[in-house]
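thought: fold this chain, then report.
action: predict
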Amino acid sequence: MRLGLDVRYLSHGLVGGIHTYLRNFIPALIEFAPRDTRVLLYADTKRPFDLAELPPNVTLRLLPYHTPLSSLNHDFSMGRAMARDNLDLAHFTASYGFSPAGLPAVVTLQDEINLMPLTGIWRGHRKDLRTIAMMTYLHFVTRAAVKRAQAVITVSDYSRRQILRHSGLDPDRVVVIPHACPHDIVRVDDPELGLIPRVYIGRARTARMASDVVDVQTRRMHDLGPQPPDNADDPYGGEGRS
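observation:
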């Protein structure tokens, strides 16, 4: 399988949010993808790419970045780069993206905000022209992207319900794969500190999340329905992992 992922958040000099998610998730996905998978990462030249070492089966494609308008151009021109690379599946990891005609796509959408009615979106943001324009743009491109995608991955049952409420998508196309902890988080259990014992599974959770995403990707490439994790209550729980 030739898998392409939009990972521009890893070349924009950002911290937190989706950047943290991708910084931990992409290496795990590469590690747990089927052995015959060729992974192509699409970023840009705005900032140095965050992942320093990539294995031989991974290719980094850097799109030229000149001005903020470059990002808008990449939103719609990345599909041409994917077409040249003859992919089997495209995965857009940050809410929206457009694959070329005939190429199946998966979109990761963290929540329903971009799908809400515009008046609801505007109400929760600053009222300056730039912010309103950006929120309006994200609303329309996200709605278009999820309607075209073969599957939408989100992070919780609540997010799934809200996405379905605001998008009208077929419920079979929206699958829940919860976030994992960053790989360097460890178990904290110290009675002397009076902490309630909690398990932070770290790398094992990241690995399981990556495995579930690969399963959805593979099933969609073969036009099968997305398969939720086996244990919907705590799909990445359990003791004794590290």
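thought: worth noting. The longest helix spans residues 129-148.
final: tokens above.
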